[in-house]
Amino acid sequence: MNRQSTAEPLQDIVCPFCGLCCDDLSVTRAGQELVIDTPCPRARAGFAAPGADAANGTDALPQIAGTPCTLDDAVAYAAQLLGAAHQPLFAGLGTDVAGVRALLRLADRCGASFDHMNSTAMLRNLLVLQDSGWMTTTLGEARNRADVLLLFGGGVERSAPRFYERLFGAGETLFGRPRRARELIIVGEGEARPPVEESVRTTRLHCDTRRLGEVAMALRALQRGAHLHPSGVAGIALEPLRAVLDRLRSADYGVIAWTAAELDFPHAELAVQAFCELATALNETTRCAALMPGGDNAEHTLAQVATWQTGYPTRASLAAARPDFDPIRHDSARLLREAEADVLLWVSAFDRHRTPPPCQVPAIVLGRHGMRPASPPAVFIPVGTPGIDHPGHVFRCDGVTALPLRALRHSVLPPVSDTLQAVLAAL
Amino acid sequence: MLIKLTAGTIYDPANGVDGEVRDLYIRDGRIVAPPAETERVSVEYDLRGKVVMAGAIDLHTHIGGGKVNLARGLLPEFCRDAHYARGELTRSGCGLATPSTLVTGYRYAQMGYTAAFEPAVLPVNARQAHMEMADTPILDTGGYAMLGNDDFLLRLLREGAAQPLINDYVAWVLHATQCLGIKVVNPGGINAFKFNARALDVDEPNPYYEVTPRSIVNRLARALHELGVAHPLHVHASNLGVPGNFRSTLKTMGAADGLPLHLTHIQFHSYGTEGERGFSSAAAEIAEAINANANISADVGQIMFGQTVTISGDTMHQYNNRRHAHPRKWVCSDIECEAGCGVVPFRYRDRNFVNAMQWAIGLEIFLMVDDPWRVFLTTDHPNGAPFTSYPHLIRLLMDRSFREDMLRQVHPQAAAHSRLSGLTREYSLYELAIMTRAGPARILGLRDRGHLAAGAFADIAVYTDQPDREQMFARPAYVFKNGELVVREGEICALTRGGTHAVKPEFDRGIEKRLRRYFERYHTIRLNNYRISDDEMAEGIGSPIIAAKCAPRVDA
Ligand code: SF4
Ligand SMILES: [Zn+2]
Predict the structure, then answer these.
(1) How far apart are CA B170 and CA B186, in angstroms?
(2) Of the bound ligands, which one is closest to the alpha carbon of residue A41?
(3) What is the percent of chain B where pLDDT is above 70?
């Protein structure tokens, strides 16, 4: 890799910046600079952040209390802080599989609790899995089979920018032309017209995001044979609701989708539960399944690896020498607010703007190169980004696949995994 | 370094050794011939009075991959109820029926197991399955890739593709997923469920592809045979759990046309419809068919009473089983035009007629199949019971009076309807060593595992001989993995990392062109990101490949 732009762009590159994990990018390199071929704004921002090689690596030095130092010194001080702590808190946790493996090994060793920066959104879905289970589908299955897609929420692109393109974009489906045109029904706020093919018929039903759960419950009630008032629910009249249900019932394969991040209101898990119940109930006569796109900062990667290693996806503690899950007690915001944690380890390797929350306790920050924490933390170690500066793996939002990430440029920035292994060795 | 195991009583059926007192020597991780008198022994273990076997091998246990992790995600209460504290060497973990990966490795090793195989690797999920198994310490692992419900194969079959093309595809999948074998689950049925079919019998065509389960089984079995893959097609037959399904199981056996076929968790496929409850044992018919057909092998999938969780690729039947979920929650998922998975927690009750019959049917099969080389000890972990119940199961097989005591505790009608009380057979240590070591190694094509001759890897379990076989097999005196002592008196004393057994048949790479096109048109992942390289296995995933030998069979 030299400073000229490489003639041949790299193909089939995986984007780790949202849960869709698109793996069809082509990347052209000019030294540390990377140019990608997708208009996706989130991917463009993610790939554009600066790198650090031997030539320009001086601003990539770790710092202790704002003063540049060697990596060894930073690691040694981090180990000292963790070693002296009674209740360490590991938060942020935006990293790849190797990073999570190293985090959990360290957490077990020092009895830490762990909480992803997106746990609040993650738990809207995960609490429903824990409470009732669900019937789901995956991106590829939905792309090829879904003849009706019911979307709860008008803002799916905020969490999964290429969602419409990847589901309805150009290209055939496995089963050729469906019996009818494919149909997209969007219930929620906003008027944006999704960029989907002409062949997809789009229906919009306007409703307040906070009332999406009620709409799903009404559809479920109709499905059960209940009678509803003609005025309908949440501002949607009975007739269009009936039409939605009929369409799902006559579908060969319906898909009901939402992004947890958009459901930003109290007890949103009840809305998710209603979406899931509707999807499941429709299987009495036809096929229907739920799809949960979105997610960022590799939240699914933490959830998967932590679940297989500790039994729990996030907001768990290893303090009592065994895993303990509690979405309220082990909430990092609460632990910091109530001063129950005495040291914070913050990891954000994908997003340099996700800085650690302000806190009274010493913070060890492993941040993407270029991160500017509000005030100098006790220890700051700029780290590489998986899939750009070093290889790695991230999990896709539908939980079926972990995608391989490649190093796209030379980098002096250490991966989270190596850094934390060094901390563990120094403990 | 030379290690000497002195005067143990050796059970090594692969080499015809049945309880002989001998010394064993280990050097550089392998068993070696007795060295010259002059050579210095570095460490010696006195094994007088101890039973020595190769490390046990579990050829069918759900220990890795998306569906196992979904079960963990669905059942946090199983974690609350069963957790394991961090130790000097060991990490903390939890899980009643699907323990966290680290605990899985420890608990297997603590029973003398040194290898375990995940039988249902969804190709697109192979990376995750291998990652979880890489995080399962001590054990060597491996997987069988699931085919037979994937739209690519069903399209090939519908087109009437010639066998060599099928072979190339199967070989490509084995390479891409780094697996040791191929499994088919409810052939064509998982796919049919996506087209809203709720049942599919062996000779019934898939509603879209018009391909029958029989032909899927036949073509896949043939492919593996012609490619020279040691492990026969691993079949979860049609109609799992359905009363009367022994008929479709017999038909599935016939679909092989005499080619090798392994029927998995056959207990769940050995049900008749006799009696006033319309549910009966067809173990005798099934055992008779296995005894009469040397090409057929089976693992049992024994059930044990208590709480567990069932996890299966068979969405069609798991969806149907949702009514029995205990606790009342479950998951079903259609996955990536390849297959699916269903997770249904379940409590088997000894006072429930059907459950008691299932328990008896499994034991009947163990006791009525004559050849221990063709029947394997499994609970289809965690579907019949967690793998931690193996010592109890071993006692049921080796101790008739214990078995009779247990039989008296189950539903009296079930006990009365079962032939179990008339079955006097007790497994010997030699037969047990076949069923749990030599047999699995042979049927998986692992030439230097599962036995104790010079040249074999020193995977060795040493048990203290006790009349209570459950006690004996629950707590080995010593376990060696690749010559390293990892368990002493039932406790982990060192941690090692295992590797991944995989098979790499030769094939015509021309198929990749067609696959690449297919991936770009229909899939949501590119072929380059789908297949897993040996380097990735060793580094990012963390479990280096141990390649099994494989040569095409020309007689085919
Ligand atoms: S949609 Fe998500 S994964 Fe795809 S390119 Fe955009 S940010 Fe990356
Ligand atoms: Zn199984």
Answers:
(1) 18
(2) 1
(3) 99
